[in-house]
Amino acid sequence: MALKFGIGSKKSVGIDIGSSSIKVIELSKSGHKYYIDVLDTIDLPSGAVGGGIVNDAASTASYLKNSLAKHGVSEKKVVIGIPCKHVIIKTIEMPKMKPSELESSIYYEAQRYITYDMNEVSLDYVVLGDSPSEPSNNAIMIIAGKKDIIENQSDFFHECGLNPYIIDVDCIALENMFNFNYPEEFDELISIVKIGASETNVHIIQKGTNLFRRDIPIGGINITEEIAKKFQINFNEAENIKTGNMGNRSEDFKSEFNIYLDMILTRVISEIHRTIDYFAANNDKQYPKKIYLTGGSALLGSILQEIESKINIPASNLNPFRNLLFKHESSDAIHNFFGVAVGLALRGAE
Ligand SMILES: Nc1ncnc2c1ncn2[C@@H]1O[C@H](COP(=O)(O)OP(=O)(O)OP(=O)(O)O)[C@@H](O)[C@H]1O
Ligand SMILES: [Mg+2]
Is the model's pLDDT at 333 over the cut of 70? Predict the structure, then answer.
């Protein structure tokens, strides 16, 4: 049920297209407060979306349109995200200059850093402020997204009758969501680990800036596929077992499954561990003070406790609603799914 707020409130709709589900959130900003009007998770048939890119536009559009109608979302302007792996993000330095001069020279400067064909990319940039090493320079984040991916994604939303007026990048949205919700961590070295359906992303951030990101090709979908193969069951059965619905399976099956799950967890955690070690080895042996876990697959078994004990860094589940006012009954389990969507909606509510 959509809650309506009075005149003066600004609405923003964020839509995150995931490989296993779409997340929709509508926020209202009133004064300095953000309210959640609408929250929905739309499960998708397998293969409809792959790696955040829509493959089956017709069925995905009908699911999305039904959800928006059901929740009374009438705002057509929406904020969407492009998967980070189709985007090059770099922080460069340029001498301080007027915005108009920067506008005309950034393209030529950016060419030196972008490995894609410049005719095939859309370029955007954000002036971050003084360069830490040379105060007469500005640090500038350049963001180059592949045009075909951006067009594919925005065509999909136009087909749904929506106007994707802001196109963000999912990893940037996730970090913005974190900075908004955990301002007390601003000065600390923090790792956000998102374990989704298609992959795992390890971010290391400090002072609102990304210092490092690595994508690990392990996600919930391939974990379910491995379980299905190992126990000779179909994908849906394997998904049920993985998410804790054992049905009337025998004790022998359960213990064999738990051993197998431990093996999977060990592999995921050792990849995350290696990534953090790699960052530390290249950054004066600095380790993150804390790991924040998000993404649906971060609900797998006892992954949080295992990360804490094996990597030896305090870990907790990230709450993307921490500084939002929640009008709905909510269970902690949905926290894991909304990190990117909240970041997108916040962009539109700024
Ligand atoms: N209780 C649970 N235990 C383990 N895994 C779970 C649980 N609930 C959901 N998952 C897994 O979480 C994954 C979905 O997570 P999430 O919604 O973050 O991914 P997505 O946004 O759809 O995909 P993408 O990786 O493209 O962002 C699925 O693979 C699902 O199997
Ligand atoms: Mg996702």
Answer: no
For residue 35, the Cα-to-chain-centroid distance in whole angstroms is: 20
- Least Cα distance to 293 among 176, 185, 178 occurs for 178
Give pLDDT tens digits for 220-274: 999 999 999 999 999 999 999 999 999 999 999 999 999 999 999 999 999 999 9
Closest-lying ligand 1 atom to the alpha carbon of residue 198? 25
In angstroms, rounded to a whole number, what is the distance separating the alpha carbons of residues 103 and 74?
A: 35
Mutate-to-test residue for ligand 1 from 41, 221, 297, highest number of ligand atoms within 8 A of CB: 297
- What would be the CATH architecture of the domain defined by 85-147? 2-Layer Sandwich (3.30)
CA of 6 to the centre of ligand 2 (A): 32
Pairing status of strand 163-169 against strand 200-206: unpaired
**What is the CATH code of the structural domain delimited by 213-315?**
3.30.420.40
Ligand lying closest to the C-alpha of residue 200: 1
Spatial distance between the Cα atoms of 211 and 283, rounded to a whole number of angstroms:
10
Return phi, psi of residue 84, to 5°: -55, -30
Q: How far apart are CA 310 and CA 266, in angstroms?
A: 9
Q: How far is CA 184 from CA 67, 179, 190, in A?
A: 35, 9, 11
Instruction: Tell me the fold of 10-83+148-183+318-349.
Output: Nucleotidyltransferase; domain 5 (3.30.420)
- Closest CA relative to residue 288, chosen from 296, 280, 298: 280
Residue length, the chain? 350
Cα-to-centroid distance, 219 and ligand 1 (Å)? 8
